[in-house]
Amino acid sequence: MHQRIAESPVLPISWPGDDAVLRPWRAADVARFWALTESNRARLSVWLGWPDSTHGEADVAAFIAATRTALDSGEGCDLALETAGQPVGGVGLCEIDQTNNTATMGYWIDREWEGKGLVAGACRAILRHAFDDLAMARVELWSMAGNARSRALAQRLGFHEEGILRARVIHRGQRHDRVVYGLPREAWRRER
Ligand SMILES: CC(C)(COP(=O)(O)OP(=O)(O)OC[C@H]1O[C@@H](n2cnc3c(N)ncnc32)[C@H](O)[C@@H]1OP(=O)(O)O)[C@@H](O)C(=O)NCCC(=O)NCCS
After folding, report:
1. Where does ligand 1 bind, in terms of residues with CB under 6 Å?
2. pLDDT given at position 45
3. Strand partners, 144
4. pLDDT given for residue 3 in this prediction
5. Count of CB atoms within 10 A of residue 74's CB?
6. Which positions of the chain have pLDDT values less than 50?
7. Ligand 1 centroid vs 45 CA: distance in angstroms?
8. Domains with residue ranges and CATH for the chain
9. Buried (b) or exposed (e) across 85-121, using 16+ Cβ within 10 A?
10. Strand 86-97's sheet: what is its strand order?
């Protein structure tokens, strides 16, 4: 079994090139997270499910509490991407499978900070954390087929497209294909 995330001494995670960190969400982030949800709702909800089910600060507080529980149990690693003194997005590992040592990576960023390479830097850092600190054997990324920006990022990070699960996701009342990207640890080490 991989090392439990709560026992990892490496949070927060920083990386060269960006003045940013990945760190656990905190109760004190509720107002900021809610403001980010409101100002990015239209663009995020095209691809992500959580904005539509986030109706107020109570939902955000529950989400943050759940991320902390998941960090403690090793079932998830949803982190705040912080720069300039405040969270500007989220990068994380979810669907952590402690039997097979696999996880799924996810990401989003505030419109103001999009297109600066910040998410790419944060993803490389969390991949290093996943493979080197948590001994993951493989990380996946799931994207809706139409999410060209996310798919381009996955490929830049070294993920390979492994298949399309047809009609796999219901989003906003419609079924969509899910594209599965995979990155085994050996491939990540080879391509670094
Ligand atoms: C998907 C998403 C997270 C990508 O964020 P991003 O900021 O574009 O990603 P990156 O950090 O890799 O930045 C890439 C851009 O920064 C530019 N850039 C600038 N400096 C850079 C640097 N030093 N390194 C890398 N890229 C850099 C790149 O040229 C690229 O711009 P382009 O897309 O116009 O070509 C963002 O678009 C988003 O939040 N989308 C909505 C939520 C979503 O779809 N999540 C994924 C669900 S599967």
Report:
1. 43-44, 47-48, 107-109, 114-120, 143, 147, 149-150, 153
2. 98
3. 178
4. 52
5. 18
6. 1-2
7. 17
8. 5-191 (3.40.630.30)
9. eebbbbbbbeebeeeebbbbbbbbbbeeeeeeebbeb
10. 13-14, 20-24, 77-83, 86-97, 102-109, 138-144, 174-184, 160-171
Residue 36: strand, helix, or coil: helix
| 188 CB-side CA count, 13 A | 24
> What element of type H or E holds 96?
strand 86-97
pTM as predicted? 0.94
What was the pLDDT predicted at 10?
76
- Sign (positive or negative) of CA dihedral 91, 132, 191, 185: negative
Cα separation, 91 vs 79, in Å, equals: 5
State the distance from the centre of ligand 1 to the C-alpha of 73, rounded, in angstroms.
30
Cis peptide bond N-terminal to 12, omega within 30: yes
Ligand 1, atom 23: closest residue by C-alpha: 117
